[in-house]
Every structure is written in C-alpha cells, then in structure tokens.
Fold these 2 entries.
Entry 1:
Amino acid sequence: MRYRLIIAMVVALFASTMALHATAPQREVYNLNDDWMFYFASAPDAAEAHPISLPHSWSGEMPRGLCRESVANYVRRVFVPQRWADRRLFMRFGGVNSVADIFVNGKYVGTHKGGFTAFTLEITDHVVLGADNTIRVVVSDAWRNDVLPLSSDLDLAGGIYRDVELMVTPRNIISPLYYGSDGVFVVQQSVTSSRVSGVVRCHLSTPNLDHATVVVRITGPDGYLVERLTARAGKHTSGRSVEVPFEINNPTLWSPENPAMYSVEVLLGSEESVIDAITVQTGFRSITMDKSNRLCINGEPYMIRGVGLAHDRIGAGMAITREELNADLDMILDMGANAVRSLTGPHAAALYDRCDSEGVLCWVDLPFTRSMRAFADICYYPMAPFCDNGKEQMMEIMAQNYNHPSVVMWGMFWGVWQHGEDVVEYVAELVEAAKAFDASRLTVGCSNRDGAINFSTDIIVFYQDVGWYKGAYSDVGVWCRMLASNRQWEALRYGVCYGEEGVPEHHTDMLSRAQRDAQLLPERRHRRMHEDYAAIIDTAGNFWGSWINSMYDFASPKRHSGINHSGVVCFDHTTPKDAYYLYRAMWNPDEATLHIADGSWRERRDTLQQIDVYSSVGEPMLLVGGDTIAVRNVAPSRYRADSVVIKGRTRIEAFDVTGAIRDVVEVHCGGY
C-alpha cells in the first residue's frame, strides 16, 4: 500500500509538471548573429558592403585614410511570419560600442548610448507581417562628451561585438525592457547561516491585464523545491512591478569554497495557466568588511588576490567569444587568482556565470575613468547629458548583473581627477544611486590621488607605481607603513593595485629606471617590480586585497606600440611573462610551479649573472653548465643564486628534489 501511494504521488507530480509545461507559452528566441552586411558610413558606394557574422569589431577593417573613430552600418533582413500577429517582438543587443541607432524598415526605433551593456528595444509596431523586414543598426565609436568613458587607456573599438537576439513573446510578459535585464531581481535583505529573507522583484509589462498573478518557485542546489509563493499585482501602470517576499530556513550559502546556486522561477499567471515565465540563477551570501580590513563573505574573511581583465584580444578587437572568455578565466585560475576586475565596464554575462559556478569574486567597473598618461584627456563634463548617461550606464550594469553572487562590488571610478573641476560630488551622486538600488554590495573606487574622493566609496583601492619612474621599489614598504600609521586614513578600508609595462622581446644589459613614453620596456624591469611589490605587500598585512593591473596586455591608442604591456600574459592571451609564474608559485598551492626567470633574455654581455627561480615545491636544485649552484630563499616562493659565472653558451636547469618538476633555459654570456 505504501509503495502504491508513493507511485501515485510521483505520477501526480509528473502530471502536474507536464501540465505546467504544456500550458506554458514559448518565448521564442532567435539568434541573429549571421547574414549581416557591413559597410562604413563614409564608403563611396554600396559595393563596399560585405557580409559578416556577429560578434564583430571593426578594429581590423579600417580602410587606409579612414579616421580611427568612425561610423558604420549593419544591415540584415528578418522574415516575420503572419502567425506572430498576436505576439510582441523585441530585439536584444548584448553589446554595441558605443552608440547604436536602430531602424526597422527605415523607421527609427531607438538609441542606446554606452558600449558595455546590453539593451532591448520593442519593434512590434514597426514590422510588417508575412514579409521580409530590414533591420539597420548605425554604430558609432566616435568620442562624445555625453557618453562615458570620455578618457580611457583601453582601445574601445566599434562594432556589434556581442550577440543579437530576436525575442517573440506573448502580449503580457515579465518585462525585458527594465535596463536590459530579465526583469527579475532576487533581493537579499538578510542573510545568515540559519535563514535568508528578501523579496523577488518582478517588472511586468501587461497592457492587456488589469490584475496579474505572479508565482515564484525557488529550487535549492540539491534540486528540491524550497519555496512556492504567490502574489497579485494591481492594475497596470507604467513601470509596473511586484515584490514577492520569501524566507529560506537553513540555506546553503554561496561562498568561494562552496558556490551553491539556487534557481528562481517566476511565472506570470497560475501554474495551471502560465502566461509567461523567466528563470534566473542566484546564490545567497553576505558581503561585509571587518575591523581588521578584511573582506568577508558570510562573515569569513578572504584575502583578495585579483587581476584586471580588459575587453579585447589580438585580431578580434572587443568581439570575444564565450570560449575565449573561458580560456581567459582558466588561465587566471591556473595562476591562483581568486578575483577578477572587469576594467572600465562589464564583460558578457557568460564570464559571471562561470565565476558564479567557480566561486570567483568579481569587481565590475562603471566606465568613469581617466587615462593615466601624462597629458590625459578630460574625463568629466559637469552637464546633465554626461551625468545622466553615467547614471543610466550604472543602472544597466547593476540591473543586468544583479543576480550574480560572484559580483561583490561595483566600481564607481578609476583614477578620475581633473584640474578645475571637482569630480567628488558626482561620484557621491553615483554612490547614493548605487546604494539605493543595491544595498547588499560594496562600492569601490580605484584612486591614484589623495583627497576626499578616497572617502566616497565603501572601500578604496590605491593605484601605486612608486619606484617605477622615481625612487625605489622598496619605497612601497615605506608607503605601506605610512598608510598604517595615518590616523586620518585609519577609517579607510583599502586595497592596492599595481603593475607597469614589460615586453619579453625587449632586452638590455644595463637595467635603468623607466622613463615616461619610453619605447624600450624590458621584461626584467617588469618582473622585478612585481617581485618587490608582491613580497612587501604580502607581508604588510594592512590591505584587504591586491590587484594586478592587468592579467593580459591590451590594445591602447595611448601607447607608442598601440599596446599596453602591463599584463602578466602577452596580448596573445597564451604567452605568460615571468611575473605570471611568480604569482602562480605564490598563489596556487594545488599546481607545482618551477620557473627560471629571464629565460627569454638569451644573449647577455656580462659573464657574472644572477639567477632567480620561482618555486612552489620548496628549494630547487640548480645546475649551471652541469655544476650544482647554491641558492638562497629571498622571499616567499623566490630563490636566488648570486654571482654565477657563465661563459659562452650554457644550459641552466632547475628541478625539485624528486627530479619530476623542472625548467630549462639556455643562455649565451660574454659573446659581445
């Protein structure tokens, strides 16, 4: 009898599930990445148009003589069948840099200003049923004083560089128009190990419903339903939303060690008669700072070891695929970093999906930034169009990434300052708006200045380059002690960001201090800065985190070579520099690292050499020309052999005590 009852319950559950799916209307989503025609607006005739597929960035397509900042047209035909007569149609653009004007059959639909965020436009009233419809997107990457960023070290190439989709929906829906988001926000108001509470906020677009029922189903990481809630929304108004309170007892909290994800399904209508449905993934965690200046997840402190991640790849511009993002994150994790900073703006959602599942912490920047070159551009205009655009982009960034538990801080600014105009008041307005929308996360700024701006955000990161152009790298230790003893700054919760340029192909026997705008950028200087900074900052103990600027080299119109070489990996995203192995030895205890520094410097003038080895497997054995050489430990994971005489072509070998892990380089000394 008991088994019959169990079988009956299973059958009933299966039947109800089938009924739910049988009555649920299909949101039809069509990928529109193929079959576009592309041409620059300045092209002399239509013969210049050529077929392309998205994602697309025109950085490699600039005709000779055409201005680097330009305007281009993307044109595509879309057939709209008669059967969609009672449906609504939306186009969603994952990212267009930086201003997009959309036309359907020659009629203007709308404009989006900002290159890093998605946006959705309704085209229902602009299409012709039963016919081909022409979609035209006019894209400009020209500088404008009403679109952030006004100044950046990154090369923000134009194009439709993320996916484009056509969404076909019922008339009454969960709105896709709220700042380009899914329209569903899981708001965490209280998070403890025993209970999570909050509201599920749903934005609706229901022109044909006076009243609407919303059902929320929350499924735990183990696949079991933990909450089922119902609420009713009142008569339709513009910007209509409904909030459904929820409580989960004994939750499985999201953390870097246990990135547990919940599924939140929102149904418009009843379970027996579903009108529309959206499912989002999220995780529950608290984010705080403790008294000892440590960032805490669920009350547990973490030492942040982060890297900055730009938005381009060699030959692709900003048109980066999901597979390339995954490869980038694989290399970041292999180095041992536990946090990623999206420089100047958010990456595609696929990056944060992966960080959610891997337990990687994320800092997402607003594109309010200033190039750090000597005569940098104006970065701030105190006028309404500029200020409004900054707030609009910030809201889009937060709305589109709100449900990602890996995103723990919103970046309000990066190195902004300006003679004559004080940016502090505007930063304060941004922070106030950010806190009003999302009180659960921290706000952060990256600063290279003293003053009130450092007190504008919840936490601050100081960009430091002492010893690069003046002084010595060891001066960063003096700076650390000054920070710790400064009573005016003791209330600050601060981290540190550092990094300068180095090119593996650049070599010099006489290593001198860097000069501004120098074209010789030896990797030896780059890795020595990282060696000294990493050792000093790691032992200083007064930072909540350290951020490497950056993980990969990136294109930069501000540089002589067109590339900012500050990455610990080259622009090809596959060739590590010495500094990569330094951090891998320090940060990744799960993978063995043994690396001889300066391996690319093969031709050397002096016969008296210093050999540095990075090791996570203890003190290495070192052979130079077959002779055993003594090494000493000079810093965590760093070993050195001083005053080694090398003449002619010589093989240098390092290996662990078992001989299983080794590295080999060959150099030629005293040859010129």
Note: The chain has four domains: 28-174, 183-301, 302-588, 603-669.
Entry 2:
Amino acid sequence: MAHITVAKSAGFCFGVDRAVKMTYEALDTYPAVATLGPIIHNNNVVDDMLRRGARIIDTVSELRPGECAVIRSHGVSQSVYDQLHALGNPYIDATCPFVAKIHKIVAKHTAQGDYVLIAGDEKHPEVAAIMGHCQGNCAVFEDDQSLINFFKTKYEKLEKRVAIVAQTTYNILVWEKCMEVLPKDDPNIMVYDTICHATQVRQSDADALSRKSDLMMIVGGKHSSNTVKLFDVCRKNCRSYHIETSDELYTLDLRNARAIGITAGASTPAHIIEEVKTTMTEIIELEDINFEEALEQSFKKIHTGEKVKGIVVATNNNEAIVEVGTKHTGYVPLSELTDDPALTPADVVKVGDEIDLIVTKINDQEGIALLSKKKVDEQKGFEEIIKAKDEETVLEGTVQHVVKGGVIVGYAGVRVFIPASQSGLPRNAEMDVLLKTKVKFVILEVNDHRRRAVGSIKAVQKAEKEAAKEKFWETAEVGATYKGEVKSLTSYGAFVDLGGIDGMVHISELSWKRIKHPSEVVKVGDFIEVYIKELDKDSNRISLGYKKTEDNPWEKFKANYAIGDVITVKIVSITPFGAFAQIIDGVDGLIHISQLANKRVDNVKDIVAVGDEVEVKIIDVDIESKRISISMRALLEDSEEAAEEEAEDAE
C-alpha cells in the first residue's frame, strides 16, 4: 500500500493566518465589512467570510458609508491609503509584515532617486502594490533571461543606482539563477532577498519531498501564486497534480504510486490538507483491496470499504458502538450516522437495532473498526436518485449548505447540488434565504463515478405553475372573485398573482379617485381581493377590477344629496369660466362664473381662491355625465327675496 507524507511546512503562512484572523475579528467588531479583493486565494475561506457578511470590492470607491475596509496580506499601493484617509471609512491593515517591509525599501530607494527592479508577476496584486510605493520609478522582471536583457539594454542608460527586491512568494530556484547573472562587484546594484522565509522553506521542502516521491499533490487555490510555484517546483521531479479540494481526487490517476507527497500553498487551511490526505487514503485502500485474498481468509476478517451488518450495543453523545461479528469493536461516529447537527446517536439508532454499515478504517492492533451508516444510506439514496431521474420524479429535501454558485440539498444521504440558475430565486438573489428550508426538486444530471447529482427547484416550480394555470382556466369566469398577492407595479397598473397566473388591475380600476401611480393604493406584497373583468385565454391576458361599487363616490352622492340642497364645499381649482369645488371625496361640482355673485364677475379670482370653503346650492345634477352645477348666486338671491318679503310684511 502507498505511503503518504505531508510536508511539515504545508499550509497557512504567518501573513495569511494573520490576515484571516484580522478579517474575522473585523466581522465580529464592525456592522459592515468589505475586503479589498479576496482576502486569500482559497474559495472555502472566502465563501465562509461572505456567509458571515463580508463583501469583496475592487476599489475604495465601492465602500459604503461607515463600512470597514480590510487590506489583505498582499498589501496595497500608497494611493489606496490616501483614498481611505480622504474617504474617512475605518480600515484594518492586514498587509503581511514581510510585504510591508518591501514597501519601505522601495519607497526609500525611489525617494533617493534610485531605480527599483522587482522579481515577480506583474499581474499579481502583491507586485502591483509594491509598484504603487515606487512612484513609477521601477520595472518588473520574471526570470533570469528578463534580468539579463535589462542589464544589456537599459542599465547603462539609466545612470542610476538599482535596488532589486522579490515578490515574497517568488520561486526560490529562479531567484538563485537570477543572482548568478547579475554583474559582479557593482556597488550601484543593491540586492534585497525579500522572499518570505516560510515561502523558501515551503519550496525547499516541496523540492526535497518531490525528489523522493512517485506522486505529489499540491493543494491550494488555482489562482494562488505561491501554490502555482510549488506545483512548478514539484512537477520537475515527479508526476504532480494541483488541486483545490479533496473532491478532485476521484478524477485523478493514483495508481502505481508507492510514495505520495502532499504540500499546500500559504492560503490553504489545515482542515483541507487533512481532508485530502484522508480521502486519498480511503481511495488507495479501496483500490488496494484484493477480494480474492479476502474470500480465502476467515469470514471473521473485515476490510476497509466492506459492507457489514452491525448490532447496536450502546450509544453515547458522540457515537454508536456496534458488534460486527469479529474481534473488532465497531464505532460509528455521529458524523457518520447523520448530517443533522441537532440529533444525537440515540435519536438515530437504538440498542438492539441491526444496521447496514461500511467499514471506513481498521486498527487491528487496538481491535477497533470505524464504520459509517451514512455511506450505506448514500448508496441506497443514490439508487433512488438515479431512479428519480429516469422517472422524472419530484423529490423533497432540506437545503443543508449555501455554496459558491448554488445550494446543497440533502436527500436520503446524497448531496444534490442545485445551481443558482435552478434555485427558483430571482437572478442575483441571496441564496441564504433557502438555507434549512424544505424544497421540492427534480434530478437533471447524475455522476455515477463521483456519486454527485444536479437538481432543479425551478423546474418543479415551473411545472406547478403550469398546472395551476390549467386549473385556473378550467374554472375562471368573468365576475369571479379572487384573493391574490400584488407581485409588481407599473405606471399603468398592478399585476396580481391569482395562484400560478397573473392578472392586471389597470390604474383606472384601482381607485374611484384620480391617482398618478398604483403605489398610492397598493404595494408589492399586499394581498387584495379582485374580480375578473375580462378574460382572453388565447393571449393569456386577464383584466381585473379592484374598486368596489359600494365605494363609488357618485353612488354616495346620489344617496345623500339632491337638487336644492345647501351645502358647504371647498374650492379645489379655478378656471377662466368658473371654479370647481369638492362636494365629497371623489365628486366635484362647478360654480360657473355667472353663479359666483349676483353681479357681473370678470375674474373668478376676485370672488374665490383655492382652499376657500363656501356655501352653495345644488342647482343641477347629471349623474350619467358626472356633472353637478352649484351656485353661490342662488343663495344670495334667496337672501334678497327673503329680505324683500320681510320688508313687505313689515308694511
């Protein structure tokens, strides 16, 4: 069986570990946090920070008021510090101290008029930041050939001293070649060995380990510069693979390798390195099982990967203890019993239960066998998944995790990936709203080798919506009333969900009053009662009514007012031919210019103004045309007649 060795220097370096801790502290301290670029080149860590509320921004201008900015370990140019100070936002400087030291070196030399050469990748954020402290008086070179070219074509013309620094993660082997091609004994050339000691050790360890290995596994982000350099170092010595997670191991050829080495970039957490080692061990053990020899051995022997039956003899808070019919004591950890963190082993199995298990690890010296119920459940569940895909069955499961690009739904022990585009949520919506919720989905794709499946919530929702539409059209008729949710508003009306199909309430049907926008009456999310005014199944159009007949202000007017009534009204607008006055909400009457006074009126504004309350007499009503004539003059004439009658009575 292959022997696996993990390089001692693999994983987080001091600067990256410091930056990650400072970012998590910022998330605990400030209400809003944004990192200037991904804090490290590791998707698992970055995704966890995003779930905790962090944002990733490219420039200082994207900061929101009061938001705390975090400068990552790569550092930033001096201009970024100036922008932060000008903006006034709080910020945390997580620049690696070794990078900050380079900033001081190049700033000092360029201030003295010297020229700076930087060994590294010009596109790397660390190099870009270093250049940002050079005031433009610098150049970047990739390797010894680029350095030779510089001294042949540009050095003499510069007439300046030259300071040479290196990106902290620069390839140590390439750096050594560069030092060999420098002009000898030139006092105007100053070299600073700024490659991080941890980087040097990591690359040296990787070089040494790869020389005595048949296969090297380099773990880290695909865009991580220092991880790529480790891969370059190792592949010169043996077959090498660059992976980000343990899932990629299932697609690789691990055969014919008796000595396997593992190293990892500075952005790779220890738990990912351990997952890679554990998964690789499991794969190798499964491949190394010789079933012919196993059959020849006593039936009391068990092997890693073997399916066995176990009887539960005890449970505690962490595991179930089972009897498997051999000299081994079987243990099923809680993590191999269930994915639900709220359950205990006793919630899943009971003493005396006979359960199917898969052996994950054997320790013959201590007489221990580690077992998994989840792997058996996963096998059964995967068979159900395959059947569900073939039969297009709708399944139901709980969203367990939000991951980059979608969510993971658990079904019968199988992790089903639902891409964001198939989540049923609007584009760019937050996937967190689905976490821990039950969802219905169908299976779109199945990967037998990796036991992975891809599903769609959207497809189920679409099918349910189509079914609801068909049901609606079977029973829909003009006049039928529905209670629906307002889904959206436009300038011309409101769209209401009637249960799988939308209808529109035109703005004129929302209120008896004149309104400028539907939002004056309803808002998105309101549940309102509507009735069907018109139906057109061919064009899938439904016109709805909302305003009620009993709320019609003209009906109220008819019931409470008549010609000859004297009422108090409020002037609401003035025209050259008269004034309009509000009788009740939604009903106005016209006081013609000839009805304003018992004398000739040349200008309406000489008699009334908007906002005035005046007494009038209703002199004419045309309900059909919605016109009402009212008069101030009629009241004046009535007063004069009354006065004349009193005078005649007095004689």
Note: The radius of gyration is 40 Å.
